Amino acid sequence: MVRVKETYPVLGISCASCVKKIEDVLNKTDGVIEANVNFATEKLTIEYDNDRLDIKKIDKIVKSIGFELIT
User: What is the domain-level CATH number for residue 26?
Assistant: First the structure.
């Protein structure tokens, strides 16, 4: 397992519900160890297993729920 921890800006966050939605979806995703979104800075900090998941897949998941990662 290769653990990777990165932070990315997220476009489209306008409320605390947005934060919860992103965190809930990502934290249920296979390969994600922990995902946290800071509402004030509009940034996602995510730790994941790079053997099972990559940033392109994470970006696709975030886009599927209406937000956009800046990678």
Answer: 3.30.70.100
Write phi, then psi, for 50 (nearest 5 degrees): -70, -15
Number of domains in the chain: 1
Contacting residues for 45 by C-beta, under 8 A, at least 6 apart: 5, 6, 7, 35, 36, 37, 38
pLDDT truncated to tens, each residue of the chain (71 aa)? 899 999 999 999 999 999 999 999 999 999 999 999 999 999 999 999 999 999 999 999 999 999 999 99
- Residue span of the structural domain in which 12 resides: 3-69
Cα separations (Å) of 69 from 10, 24, 29, 48, 51?
5, 16, 16, 16, 21
